[in-house]
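INTERNAL AUDIT FORM
Audit reference: QA-55
Scope: verify that the stored structure record matches its stored sequence.
Auditor: D.O.
Record contents follow.
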Amino acid sequence: MAQLPTRLHHNRKKRGHVSAGHGRICKHRKHPGGRGLAGGQHHHRIHMDKYHPGYFGKVGMRYFHKTNNQFWRPVINVDKIWSLVDAESRAKITENKELAPVVDVLKSGYAKVLGNGRLPSRPIIVKTRFVSNLAEKKIKAKGGAVVLSA
């Protein structure tokens, strides 16, 4: 950033006025309240309580050595399942009405099928690890099946 010439500094207007707009009593010092979030539980407590409630303290239980692999469960809704059918399979299905595509959602990076949305009125076979009750009901209502795999 280029430096302004002295004549353009706003402080020029304050020349001759003793405290330059910073007050006579409480001097303009470096960090009068402390640096950063200092004093959140002491002299800045009212501000912290008013504008940042719940900032201090703990909540919940501790979980030692949490490994997130066991919690991996990305979800997909039934209305998006047909988007996992590749174009080649889709072409075969449109020719023959009796065929149903087999969709392995695990290969597409999903572990659970949820029941939001509508399915087209065509049967579909879904391979998945987990499935919700509503999703299973919707898939079976269209003549499809759910195959659980590890």
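Auditor finding: record pair retrieved intact. The longest helix spans residues 87-95.
Action required: none
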